[in-house]
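Sample intake sheet
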Amino acid sequence: MARYSTALSYVILTVMGIYSLLSLANYKLYFARLSFGIITLTSLIGVWRWGHPIYGYKINKIYAAVKKVEDMLVLACIVTSIWMKYQFPLLLALIHVLVAFLPLVIPHIYSIKKNKIKIYKDICLFYVCCLIILINCIWHSSTVFYSSPPEDPPDPPPVIIDWMLFVMFSSRDANDTTEKNAISTLNMSCGIMEHWPSERLKK
């Protein structure tokens, strides 16, 4: 079944992805390139999948697999680029990208017949973690910009504690729902952001 409106949106996304890749040609932002490369590849496959009325459905499995990789890696690569901008160790940045695969791998370790809905819920929980890190990095950037002398190195944002909270709440109870874990993680993160101002703001 063809869906031309979806195919058109993928055409636009393909053009934007290629433009973004060309814009990054002179920069050593490898994770950003990977992110836009995945977006471009998924969009090209999506154009064929939803734009061809006869043979589009034949690549449905390929499209679903690439789409799942896009869901797991794109936002993780963006967050990893921010971690590297803050001069975190490369190993830590790589671990963050590798952790993005856990929602896909872990269910198959315990049960081959695991419900696919649970996998997507785990991916959503990982998205929550990535968004928390992005918010914290933006919040930290603003506090450093307005409160620190230019020569001072920036303080590391409290992303590590947020990540620890994510791990704690995601593995807290096997019977607990992902939605409750995500809400608990968000609440704890907001509490940390309120009670953890920059040390320079205290001086």
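Comment: Residues 132 and 162 are 7 Å apart (CA to CA). The two ends are 63 Å apart (CA to CA).
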